[in-house]
Amino acid sequence: MKRMVLTASMLVLSATAAMAARFIAHRGESAILPENTMAAFRGAIERGAHGFELDAYLTADNEIICLHDRTTKRTTGVEWKPADVTLAQLKELDAGSWKGAQFAGERIPTLSEALALARDDFEIYVELKIGLEVMPRLVEVMAAEPKATPERVVFICFNSKVIKALREQFPAYRAYWLTGLRVDEKSGELVPSAEKVIATLKDIGASGVNVAHTHLTADYVNAVKAAGFPFHTWTVNNKQRAAELIAMGMETITSDHAAAFALEFGGTKKGETK
Fold first, then answer.
1. Is 172 exposed, middle or buried (0-12, 13-18, 19+ CB in 10 A)?
2. 20, 47 in Cβ contact below 8 A?
3. CA 149 – CA 138 distance, rounded (Å)
4. How far, in Å, CA of 267 to CA of 177, rounded?
5. What is the pLDDT of residues 233-268, one digit of tens each?
6. Confidence band (pLDDT; 50, 70, 90) for 270?
7. Cβ–Cβ under 8 Å, residues 30 and 47
8. Chain mean position to CA 85
9. Could you give the CA distance from residue 206 to residue 225 in angstroms, rounded to a whole number?
10. What is the three-class DSSP state of 274?
11. Could you give the CA distance from residue 72 to residue 189 in angstroms, rounded to a whole number?
């Protein structure tokens, strides 16, 4: 038991001694505030996270709104698909009460509202949950918000075609390909392999990769980073696992407890080194 405790302590020291990761608030400070709302986004800023992540869908009247699920049911009690209703209809829904009575009246924000919070030394990660149909409106939204600079805004998406389009449309902005990771039952190998990830990143011109932390190993991370691609991970809510991932050289770690982890581990602002 003493050996296990010593190993864990050494791991934390090793992690914090190296270049610390930046901690990104998953859907805002979602552990304590209603996800994908302005309250959660502001909470990430006020509590000291290094950035926040949001999820984006397109409405029937071509507005981009912040919502994670395919429908509004879980967070509002009303089952609507964003593409079937207008922004005005969505703004009538209460997106806060499900988290607690004190959050009653929180509304589903637009991407434009979220981007207005952009500031120096802070990053907003925009996860596009839809396909290429979002691009025309996204171009308009980005052009209309002078605060949404390449240093402050990052795009992420599971759809490789969207990442490719983002890099072509917004070449100054970072766009990271999202992917999960699993262990093949027959071979025991990680899927997709590091080689496959590298090939995909090169093919679509991605700025880097953002991989679910489950199953990640140092060898896997090192292989991708050795090819010249930044490595990011999600969604990490365990302190020891966060320390392990920092030691692997993560640039960012997305977490429901981003502010607390930023305080615990220190972290760096964009462009800083420890």
1. exposed
2. no
3. 14
4. 23
5. 999 999 999 999 999 999 999 999 999 999 999 865
6. low
7. no
8. 26
9. 13
10. coil
11. 37
**179 exposed, middle or buried (CB, 10 Å; 0-12, 13-18, 19+)?**
middle
Distance CA 216, CA 69 (A): 26
List Cβ neighbours of 190 (8 Å cut-off, separation of 6 or more). 181, 182, 183, 184, 215, 217, 220
In 3D space, the residue among 62, 92, 59 whose CA is nearest the CA of residue 76 turns out to be 92
Joined together, the tokens standing for residue 229 give: 């691609």
Joined together, the tokens standing for residue 198 give 């590298």
> Which of 148, 168, 166 has the alpha carbon at shortest distance from 157?
166
Sorted by sequence, the CB contacts under 8 Å of residue 224 that are 6+ apart come out as 194, 197, 198, 201, 209, 231
Contact assessment for residue 41 and residue 54, using Cβ atoms and an 8 Å cutoff: yes
Q: What is the pLDDT of residue 269?
A: 54
Best CA proximity match to 182, nearest among 173, 191, 195, 174? 191
Please report, to the nearest 10 degrees, the dihedral formed by the alpha carbons of residues 100, 56, 85, 74 taken in order.
Answer: -30
DSSP characters over 162-224: HHHHHHHH-TTSEEEEEE--EE-TTT--EES-HHHHHHHHHHHT-SEEEEESTT--HHHHHHH
DSSP for residue 82? G
